[in-house]
Amino acid sequence: MTPESSHKNKPDYGIDAPNVVRNLIICGSVGFFLWLSVIFNLWPGIIVIRPVASIELIFPMGITGFVVTLGFYSTAIWMVWSSKIGKINEREKLLQNFSWKGNEMVLDIGCGRGLMLIGAAKRLSTGKAIGIDIWQSEDLSGNKMEATLENCRIENVEDRTEIKTADMRQLPFADDTFDIILSCSAIHNLYNANDRKKAISEIARVLKPGGQALIDDIRFHNEYASNFTANGCKDIKRVSSPVEDFLTSLITFGSLRPGTIMAKKEV
pLDDT for 252-262, tens place per residue? Predict the structure, then answer.
């Protein structure tokens, strides 16, 4: 087997938020060249700001450039690592929250290139996993149905999976269809609160009585819990680590406020 054919036999789940990764690299590069310009004495490297006559603020740009370089490059590297390795490990942890029988009907909302969809399908024997998406490439590099189908082929789960183009706010499924519903880092892309409310309402509608939904997202988990409660899913628990979620929020200065919840529909 050639190295090229070996590479093609490995699933590719893409890079999350590729535009963010690109911007981090650009900002880190600006900081790097700023730092180098001071190191090689191309300019004094000091900026003085006097907001009022009696106050003088001095900014050493060499140190600033180094900190910017380290911070932005480190974050970009972490995001790439998370996309290629970390999220696969995280998938397995998330799916362990269910007691799998193998005959479940599973829905993955915002399936992307099939990370969670395929992980669920591997746990099925007579069941089926369906993934839906609207294929936004700004959320995931190379996000298209063909890439998902190819990953399903590589992972040998074609017979247990189905892919559809569909909007989470209007799911094309009958009431009480699914035993398990998954959604990872997808619902927050609905920027309007009413749209997110509609998505949760749709999830609750197509979930079977006694079925469970797992929502892993970078913000809004308290909002999701409230909306599930209002739609007949009152058995709700948080399954992510509050300490890890808090640290992530702290490190990202509040831009990420992650959480993972599970909601069970009343029988």
Answer: 778 789 999 99
**Cβ partners under 8 Å of residue 226, min gap 6:** none
**Which structural domains are found in the chain, ordered by start?**
18-83 (no CATH), 97-264 (3.40.50.150)
CA–CA separation, 168 and 160 (whole Å): 21
Which pLDDT score is estimated for 259?
94
- Please tell me the distance from the alpha carbon of residue 17 to that of residue 29, in angstroms, as a whole number: 19
Between CA 99 and CA 137 the distance in angstroms is 33
* pLDDT digits 0-9 by tens, 72-86: 899 899 889 888 888
Which own/partner pairs from 57-64 qualify as long-range (CB within 8 Å, at least 24 positions apart)? 61/34, 62/34, 62/35, 62/38, 64/31, 64/34
